[in-house]
Amino acid sequence: MKNKQSNVVEFPKLKERLTEMALEAIKNKKYEQALSCFDQLGDERLPYDAGVARVMALMEMGRYEEARSQCFYLLTEQHSGSFDLIEVYLGILVHCNAQEEAAEIAKNMIQSKDTPEELVPLFEKYVHYADVSKKEPEGDASYFFQLKENNDDWRYVDYLQNVDARLYLKDVESFLLNSTKSPLLKTTLLQILKQQEIKKEIRCEKHGHILVIRPVDLPNVFEQSFFRRVLVSMESHVESENPTLYQQLRELWEQYAFYAYPDELTPEEPEAWAAALHYIGQERSGFDEQANAIAALYESDTELMNLAIRRLRSFEENVFQ
After folding, report:
1. Is there a contact between 168 and 160 (Cβ–Cβ < 8 Å)?
2. Does residue 287 fall inside a structural domain?
3. Residues 112, 80: one domain?
4. Model's pTM, two decimal places?
């Protein structure tokens, strides 16, 4: 009797069928099912595409040491020079607290003539991260999870600004979906993900709405056309008469836009928001101007203006008091 070499029964084309089933499961985000198929194949000596798929599934399931082994095989035994795969491998190393190994690979990539110039800053980040890890005990992944457990939200978000957020996307999404977390911090976190050009879709709760977001596609907070249209509308009626008040109201509008981002604002008419800001400014200055008159000045519906006023006041009460 032959010794059993693996748990795969050698039926014709069984390996091909298991690979197809695994890839289909990954396509449908059924990562546990995919790994079950891969496990039946016996080892990590898979064709390149299947090996990369297994790496992704292992990462999704939090099995980073196995992902590290599979990725190493693809890069060495299959001699893959894929820069995307190298980037994935560096991220896995950092997650496994192997920052120095990641830094050495990154240094080699920086020195290589084959490395595209636009990828050099990416590899420099891994060198920098290893340096930070040596200097500070908080530079490793365990520190990130400690911050999370301690609900140290500001430092949690600040930490992500200095590391590759791709390594922690599951935890980042959990933070963004938590309705008790600060909307201002969520906006800061989304901006970090945008700066790092995160292409994967993530979910975010903002003001009772669940948004599906691709961070790389998000507009900058203060470059949104709606934000600009409100300012332009308000400029023509406030800035020339009272520049100081205009700056105060502009600051309030910037704060509210940052708070609401990237959720769509209600009401949807920029004139209603400009009128609401003008009304609040008049109120702060001690003037008792009628809401109807200000709404008419901006050609806005009074009810929509009042709705915007309530939202701005609620924002000030809940965030700054």
Report:
1. yes
2. yes
3. yes
4. 0.56
